[in-house]
Write a structure and sequence with these properties.
The complex is a heterodimer of chains A (386) and B (93). Chain A has 386 residues and is an alpha/beta fold. Chain A contains 17 helices and 14 strands. The relative contact order of chain A is 0.16. Chain B is mainly beta. In chain B, the strands form two sheets. A six-stranded mixed β-sheet of chain B has the order 4-3-1-2-5-8, with no helix packed on it. In chain B, 45% of the residues are buried. Classes of the chains: A alpha/beta (386), B mainly beta (93).
Chain lengths: 386, 93
């Protein structure tokens, strides 16, 4: 098996060929969105961060913006700034340029307002789209693939089918030299020791323990025990008995594949294999973290039907609930209810999902892309917002 | 129609029912190419767990091959396993 992708100057291979419009601060989202509307082939990566953060959050936002620009699905980048934001505009531009791809920049204060910036930015974007459209997909090895994963709108079937099926893909793709990025610290909570035991380096396992402790401490700081909000009465009614059980169902997306490293939010893994990133469960920030890791697509498990995608990476939705597969058919890409119904093994369904994901990496569109249900994203900040 | 429960790995001593089970029903579990039947000792709703091995008080429950909780009373094969006979042993360090 191989896939068809766009080779980038740094050797990464894209599953899509978009010209990204990246605002360095949420204040200029209107500029980015107007250029996206004007110029075919562009995607605006709008968010609401970039200013009035503590330094740690400014660093996270800056790193994430750079790594979004470096994502191989992105052919070229137009960076849009305001001129007074905390995020260092030049650092974002120079950081993305390290990838060798075309990068242009416009700043509203420099150009004298929104209309002038749209005018200039749209012209630059149009030129980059023309050049990007001249690129062609070529045959690529499966070792070039990087998938991230998330579960959303989960139900009982998630931990019994879809998450196990993704776990099988994790095993198969990492055996082929690919890279797999998993996160959702809130879902890891309760299962962090099981993940630590899978780490090839115990120091990386300690980082995963600290990801959970950090979340717990941030909850305590506002008077909340986040263990309680993780294990809901609905979970218990649905049959989940303990937080560990719930966590293990989420962790199953990586099966028992060894873990190479624990990654800060929005950073890129340094080697192939399975990695754990400090992403939240909340979808908008979660998918952005995965996209910043350099993943070409996301394997998104759902039970009740989570429809959202992401502007940078296609989301392959898979579902083990036979009712949802009918009622939310227009949002689900891969039906794995067969695993619940015992008509297909996890291994068989995993192979089927892997093949489908490779087809998506080669250009098959996901439901979220077709429906344009993929326009919104966010970047994680821990605050306080000032 | 046959009622199934999912046992994730062989080490597990519980399986999760994927049908609403009545007391006395046969519940089928497919594991390693084999199909085994267990008689339910109680009503077990969809998504809830049935014991596939005897579990003594203080012993761990295994699902996904991991200890997910501790039995607070003796649990027999076919019993409904949930918060009434299991306690969470998780602590944030």
């Amino acid at each position: 098996m191989e896939f068809l992708g766009y080779t980038r100057p740094d050797g990464q291979v894209g599953a899509r060929n978009i010209v990204a419009i990246i605002p360095t601060v949420g204040c200029v989202n209107a500029v980015a969105l107007n250029i996206e509307k004007l110029i075919k082939g562009t995607r605006a990566f709008t968010h609401h961060q970039g200013c009035l953060h503590p330094p740690q959050d400014t660093e996270t936002v800056t790193r994430t913006l750079i790594n979004l620009g470096k994502n191989p699905n992105v052919a070229a980048v137009l960076v849009v700034g305001l001129g007074c934001e905390m995020v260092d505009f030049d650092r974002v531009v120079e950081g993305i340029k390290e990838s060798g791809k075309p990068v242009q920049a416009v700043r509203v204060h420099d150009l004298g307002g929104m209309l002038e910036t749209i005018n200039k930015g749209a012209q630059l974007a149009a030129d980059m789209v023309l050049e990007a459209s001249k690129l062609r997909r070529t045959k690529q090895g499966l070792d070039k693939l990087r998938f991230c994963t998330k579960c959303g709108s989960s139900d009982t079937t998630s931990g019994l089918s879809s998450n196990l099926v993704v776990g099988e893909v994790c095993r198969l793709m990492t055996e082929n030299g690919g890279t797999f990025v998993q996160g959702e610290v809130c879902d890891i909570m309760g299962g962090e020791y099981a993940l630590k035991n899978l780490c090839v380096d115990p120091a990386e396992g300690d980082k995963i323990i600290n990801f959970v402790k950090d979340l717990y401490d941030r909850g305590t700081a506002v008077g909340a025990d986040v263990r309680g909000s993780q294990m809901t009465s609905g979970n218990v009614a649905g049959g989940l008995t303990t937080l560990i059980e719930k966590a293990m169902g989420a962790n199953a997306k990586g099966q028992n594949v060894p873990i190479q490293s624990a990654l800060e939010y929005g950073s890129r893994p340094m080697c192939a294999g399975r990695h754990i990133m400090a992403t939240p469960g909340h979808g908008f920030e979660n998918l952005t973290g995965g996209a910043a890791s350099g993943a070409q697509l996301i394997l998104f498990t759902t039970g009740r039907g989570a429809p959202n995608g992401h502007p940078c990476i296609p989301t392959v939705k898979l579902c083990g609930n036979s009712k949802t597969n009918v009622t939310m058919q227009s949002h689900i890409d891969v039906d794995v209810a067969s695993v619940i119904e015992e008509t297909e093994t996890v291994e068989q369904a995993g192979k089927r999902l892997y093949e489908y994901a490779v087809a998506v990496a080669s250009g098959t569109l996901t439901k979220a892309e077709i429906l344009n249900f993929d326009g919104h994203m966010e970047i994680l900040i821990k605050g306080p917002v000032m | 129609m046959k009622k199934f429960a999912k046992q994730i790995v062989e080490k597990d001593n519980v399986a999760t029912c994927v049908a609403d089970v009545n007391a006395g029903d046969e519940v089928y579990v497919k594991i390693n190419g084999q199909e085994l039947a267990y008689k339910a000792n109680a009503e077990i709703p969809f998504g809830h767990k049935i014991a596939v091995k005897n579990i003594k008080t203080g012993e761990f429950l295994y699902k996904y091959g991991e200890a997910i909780g501790k039995a607070t009373q003796d649990i027999a094969v076919g019993d409904w396993v949930h918060t009434h006979n299991v306690v969470d042993h998780y602590e944030v360090v």
